[in-house]
Amino acid sequence: MIKVQDLRKSFKVAKRKAGVAAAVASLFRREYEEIHALKGVSFTVTPGEIVGYIGPNGAGKSTTIKTMCGILTPDSGECVINGFVPWRERQRYVRNIGVVFGQRMQLWWDVPVIDSFELLREIYRVDCREFKNTLTLLIDSLNIASLLNTPLRQLSLGQRMRCELAASLLHSPDVLFLDEPTIGLDAVSKIAVRDFITMINRERQVTVVLTTHDMNDVEALTDRIILIGKGEILYDGGLTNLRSRYTLNKTMTLDYDTTQSVQPDVHGVSWLEWTAGRAVAEIDVRKTQVSKVIAQLSECLEIRDITVDSMPVEQIIVKLYEEHRI
Amino acid sequence: MSLDMNLNTIANRNPGKLGAWRAVFRLRLICCIQYRIPALAGVVTQLFWGIVSLLLYQAFYESCPTAAPMTFSELVNYIWVQQAFFALINIWCMEPELSGQIISGDIAYELCRPQNIFALWFSKMLASRLAATLLRALPVIGVALLLPAPYGMTFHGDGWTMLLFIVALSLAALLNTAIIMLAMALMFFAPTPAVFSAVAIVGDFLSGLIVPLPLLPDALQRIAYILPFRYGADLPFRIFTGNIAGCDAISGIGLQLLWLVLLVSAGKKVYQIALRKMVLQGG
Amino acid sequence: MLLYRYFLINLKSQLQYRAAFLAVLAVQMIVPFTYIASPYFLIERFSNLGGWNLAEVMLCFGIINGAFALSELLARGFDMFSRQVVSGSFDRLLVRPRAIELQVLGSTFEFSRIGKMVLPFIMLGWAVWIQPQLWQPLKLCTIALMLFSGVAIFSGIYVLQATLCFWTIQGLEVANIFTNGGQMTAQYPLNIYKKWLRLFFTFIIPFGCVNYLPLGYLLAKPRFESPLYALTPLAGFLFLVPCVMIWRFGVGKYLSTGS
Do C50 and B64 lie within an 8 Å CB cutoff? Predict the structure, then answer.
């Protein structure tokens, strides 16, 4: 159970200007700017849930994650995870969380992966038998058996990330924080990582909080997203819900036989493009249904091919940001 | 990293040698000023080092005053000049970017650039050493002049001595850069920073940075005088203190020049050969 | 146990590049020759240093430089701590259920510093060998105690230097005054210096407790006959207490601002 209530945090940042004169001036006096990273953030996550925590860079994403990990003490507000206030009882609290920072690995660069795992076993004081069981499960589901005796530096990025995921779960945490776990990965590795997260969530009821810039990650893993911008929660709810709120129009692309040259007039359809053999239209789903439109069109056109797309999630989010002027 | 990238682009944009050099120097200076605390830390460190050394030598001098080959006031000046211009005369501050390129072999890619690699890095290094010295020398000298006797810095010479000192110090700055360039070239043949460190340690000793050369046993002094290192440090210090004057000073500067010409041409040659070899081997 | 694991993994990691490791080890073996140059050549020239002869100074030299190298080996994690703050890997340590100090300590052991211990330990052995008055169990124990106490003092300074990183990562070289500067100053008996410097290095940073105070007892210098002087090195371990307290304060500051 994660409960975050009215979290606030601001930082002081020194200003810097260009040029020799400004550099000399800064020898004596510096100006500071106050930045409000979190302006009252609240949400709850139920055990066993996967949540996508989304936002542009500088929105307050990593500040929230750091606070939830116990690395940062907020100015005010509450946060209770597994019955702990992260920053108050950090050392006991972190025993039951796993953290993956996609951009910085925790495994040792020059030694075989298994040695890093052994060190982590010691750090988390995991009992040998339990460790063996967990490791076997992780090795199987991540398919890393052949990588264990190789130094990290000789592995590909995707292989490293798989080992990194295993490392963060060796002590069987209840909550897993994933900070951009798929950053820089190729398509195959991305899918492997997603599949694994789904598996670990289903099999072991691990609660997952995930930040990412790749909306495909979120779509593949969960329906629940929390959208943050400028330190405030902009949206908290289902992805499908969000989509139905914003994708009132669908785009239809049509290839047809050129004999017909008159635009057919169909209710709820506005033509964006009409050239010989190809047409693009927007369908307003409040006025009509896609199937109805296709049926009507096929009566007057010789249709060769048809595709219907809804607005991609990325665009929905961009739209949402625009609405909130971010 | 980003600063050095800037330096590269600027150096490439200004093909005029002086323009490029000025840009490099200006950037390094801004960079150094921005990092005000390191500059201050450098000054404090040099002052501390100077004072502790003097207290130590004082204890030695008091133990057996007759055994000293140079007077204590000469020694005091020797130490302060050394501390003030430390950034200019030490030979273990190298360019990590260049050494990284040499060790990884990436320097071969630099060959597609129009300018001479030796000259480019020589001026880059000289610029950063000058910038670092500019910020540190004046405060150190200022404090050293204010210190009470016998620890305070004094200058007894005339304008002529000062002129000789400035000439010798400038040549020393160039000579040390040339020595570092050569020592770094060793990494072409044995790709580890350890070879550079080994030369730097021996060089520092033989240039009088660890123990002032006149205090060393005669046999070691003789060795030090044959090698180029002392012309990068010991000679200008002793011209300043008046320990070396007149004809000796002028002939010393002559030898300095000779070494400079020798080492710079050797350096150019070595970089040329090493790079050619590298290209032939395919990087 | 955890420290032992850290020890092994560091060793394994550094031995991955055997040639480079050996090269650095070799250079580290040369470094102390620059430290020994002053005491050796200057005592040769001036015949003594404020009443201390070569063997006596070498006893001091061996202990301080041995302790310095050993502390560089052990406390390297604190010495290089700014890197961890810059790269963000310090955050990683905070999400682990172990004492931060332990994890920082274990993050790096610099085994190449073994090379730097060679000359000091040879000189220490030589100094003990030619001074038979040192061949007593209590005196030998005092020498060992001085060595470890010295390691504690240098390590304490590295902890303070690391603490500074929570405020600024620039200008950390100021700490060199106390580490390299401490080594350079305290490799001679501190009472050859002027009083203020001796007092600073006795009561602020307690190098005196591994230097002239126990040395006076070991070498039976006048006014130092009391065997209590043999216990002064214990103060070096006490020095770690305020250092770790200040460090913890720094960690608290980091947690509240995130730097």
Answer: no
